[in-house]
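A common beginner's mistake is to predict each chain separately and then try to dock the pieces by hand. The better habit, illustrated here, is to supply every component at once so that their relative placement is modeled jointly.
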Amino acid sequence: MKNTIKVERAKKNWTQADLAKHIGISRQGLNSIETGKFVPSTVLALRMAKVFNTTVEILFQLDDTEA
Amino acid sequence: MKNTIKVERAKKNWTQADLAKHIGISRQGLNSIETGKFVPSTVLALRMAKVFNTTVEILFQLDDTEA
DNA sequence: ACTTTATGTCATGAATACTTGACATAAAGA
DNA sequence: TCTTTATGTCAAGTATTCATGACATAAAGT
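With all components supplied together, the output reads:
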């Protein structure tokens, strides 16, 4: 799964630690999600979309093999 | 976290087993998600939203305590 | 009455998400 | 040069998700 977390963070000028704190996750956990190592839970995806004022679909995109 | 999976299933007249098959999960797994026992992964949430032609935000709503 | 279907639930185990503490590196500032 | 900041990564442990097989129940069909 791909994501545009880095872009949205850049818009807000937030570090990974900033975002992690806002959505209630550890910095390392967020890093693993942002770099595509972990698939986040829907709760985290919804929280992220909310703080970025966007949608889960815009923030996360299924790969062709996952669709 | 709340969800409207049952409603969307009803629109399509699908059983839990039908939906589970479409999104690649076990019937019991889907039941646990639909009844709110498990928080699904974002991959599953995106697949469900897709087959129902809706969005993750419409299908899943954070509780006030989770927001 | 019997069978089938849909749902809910439980137990066990495997896979994955997430935490914490730690360390490395590169970039920027003092 | 020294320090700080941001990011990436690793290891070990805990928590959660998901699979599978099983059983119960209620509703509907025969």
